[in-house]
């Protein structure tokens, strides 16, 4: 993100009020805008230069051009490393990356082999996204990633196959109710395994803790900028690693994954069940797949910003809510902050 670029001047976090849910929705919509995927390497470098020019004091005001540059940088670079996130795993590519996988999982009449293959594909994508967007102050080891991946795949496949075996045996349900429940099986598998995947992939953060920083007041920011004007790239020093902050960060991320998968995995199959009962689709069975893709794409576009905005990415909490070592180290209003990850 832009905060990782050289310069001592703090950037405005957003054009929108991130203390409100709808402000975060608008900000999340910018970060997840697929159009930023088409920015070339030279375009990214130009955007970084524009943002750095503001941070170095060469530009006095945030012009529309600098805001656009910040949008490109925020949607492309990792906030901890300052390096580009691998393109398929960026939030701006989330809708595109998940479209085919979600459509595969929601295919009507999917057999055991198909169920297993699509659940494995989905968890493989989840591992990539979680790893690429995790808090990098506590790096993940390869054995941890592999173990987390195998656990998540086992969980999703077990839930999917188990429910697919149980639902047909529910004798008191009507055929329509059974069909509806069968279509919702992928949601149960994805939601449970998705949350588990986040905890497993980022379990090292909970065990070791993540970096926390003092929340600076406007006066402190101005003093920092003035005192360090000649020092390029200086950053606020970490107060240390907090396990409680890590637990909060990982827990909120896992919940946001469930919130994101709920409309995407629930609404399209329920709507498709209704559409398949219409004469129009009965006469045109080949339109089932395009209809399914259209429903998933439309739902995904609107659901992603709503889910990402559930919690602030840069989280500020009371120092008293963390370990005792941080109680007297809070900044503005006794608060500290940390990067939650996405």
UniProtKB/TrEMBL annotation:
Compartment(s) where it occurs, according to its Swiss-Prot or TrEMBL record: Mitochondrion membrane
A GO BP annotation: amino acid transport
Isomerase found in the keyword field: no
Gene Ontology cellular-component annotations: mitochondrial inner membrane
Topological relation to the membrane, as annotated: Multi-pass membrane protein
Organism domain of life: Eukaryota
InterPro entries hit by this protein: Mtc
Gene Ontology molecular function: monoatomic ion transmembrane transporter activity
Keywords: Amino-acid transport, Membrane, Mitochondrion, Transmembrane, Transmembrane helix, Transport
Annotated transmembrane regions: 179-200, 291-311
Similarity remark: Belongs to the sideroflexin family.
The protein's name: Sidoreflexin
Organism of derivation: Imshaugia aleurites
């Amino acid at each position: 993100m832009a905060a990782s670029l050289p310069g001592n001047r703090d950037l405005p976090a957003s054009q929108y009020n991130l203390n409100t849910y709808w402000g975060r929705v608008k900000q999340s919509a910018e970060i997840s805008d697929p159009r930023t995927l088409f920015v070339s390497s030279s375009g990214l470098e130009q955007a970084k230069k524009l943002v750095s020019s503001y941070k170095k004091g060469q530009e006095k005001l945030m012009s529309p051009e600098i805001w656009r540059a910040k949008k490109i940088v925020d949607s492309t670079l990792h906030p901890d490393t300052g390096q580009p996130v691998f393109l398929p795993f960026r939030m701006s590519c989330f809708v595109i990356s998940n479209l085919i996988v979600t459509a595969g999982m929601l295919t009507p009449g999917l057999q055991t082999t198909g169920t297993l293959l699509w659940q494995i594909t989905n968890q493989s994508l989840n591992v990539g996204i979680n790893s690429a967007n995790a808090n990098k102050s506590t790096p993940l080891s390869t054995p941890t990633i592999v173990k987390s991946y195998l656990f998540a795949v086992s969980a999703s496949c077990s839930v999917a196959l188990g429910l697919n075996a149980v639902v047909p045996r529910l004798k008191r349900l009507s055929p329509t109710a059974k069909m509806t429940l069968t279509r919702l099986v992928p949601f149960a598998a994805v939601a449970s395994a998705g949350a588990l995947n986040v905890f497993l992939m980022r379990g090292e953060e909970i065990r070791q803790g993540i970096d926390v920083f003092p929340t600076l007041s406007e006066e402190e920011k101005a003093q920092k900028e003035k005192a360090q004007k000649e020092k390029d790239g200086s950053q606020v020093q970490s107060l240390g690693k907090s396990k409680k902050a890590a637990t909060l960060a990982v827990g909120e991320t896992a919940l946001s994954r469930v919130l994101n998968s709920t409309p995407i995995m629930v609404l399209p199959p329920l709507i498709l069940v209704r559409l398949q009962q219409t004469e129009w689709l009965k006469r045109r069975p080949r339109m089932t797949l395009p209809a399914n893709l259209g429903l998933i794409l439309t739902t995904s576009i609107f659901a992603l910003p709503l889910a990402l905005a559930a919690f602030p990415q840069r989280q500020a909490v009371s120092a008293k809510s963390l370990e005792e070592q941080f109680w007297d180290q809070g900044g503005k209003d006794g608060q500290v902050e940390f990067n939650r990850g996405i």
